[in-house]
Description:
The chain is mainly alpha-helical. Helices cover 91% and strands 0% of the residues. The chain has two helices and no strands. The model is unreliable at 1-27, 29-34 and 36-40 (pLDDT under 50).
Amino acid sequence: MASPGVSTPPKxxxxxPAAAAKKTTSARKPAxxARKPAxTRSQPATAQRASTQKxxxxxxxTVAGKARSRAAKATVTEAKSGAALVGTYxxxxxxxxxxxxxxARDRVVEIVEEVLDTYSTRKKTExxxxxxxxxxxxxxxxLEREAxxxxxxxxxxxxxxxxxxxxxxxxxxxxxxxxxxxxxxxVDDVSSQIQTVASKVQETVKSIA
Length: 209
């Protein structure tokens, strides 16, 4: 039994902090245990993203390489095409005059052979001369017909113009005669009036005297 003036501390008080620490430690352990699976799950996702990036980089590099290869092939092809085109033009520049000269030579040879064949015998020569004569006669007749037509047209034109001139001259003559008659009539009228006035003046003078 304790004395009334002395207070005795309780015996179970020191044990409570230890129990609280144990509870805190036991409460923290599940949190760390829970965080470990999260880090474990992030590692495969990071590895997958890295693998995807590597695959994309490889694919881009492959596409770029193919594009460079196609561009190089296109450049080589264009160069070859340009060289072939230049060669074709150069060859054509050489072959065209040669072909033209050969064609002209062949034409001359054909003409000479044709002439020789045409005048090889007397009969052929006479036949050719008669052909030329008929052709000349046809040309002469055509020229004569054209000359006659031209002369006929000219004569008709001259006749038409002469008729027109004569018509105008006749009309002018009629107008001149009409004007002459008009002037003559007016002159006669004026003369008669003058004579009338003169006779009146004479009568007046006589009556005054």
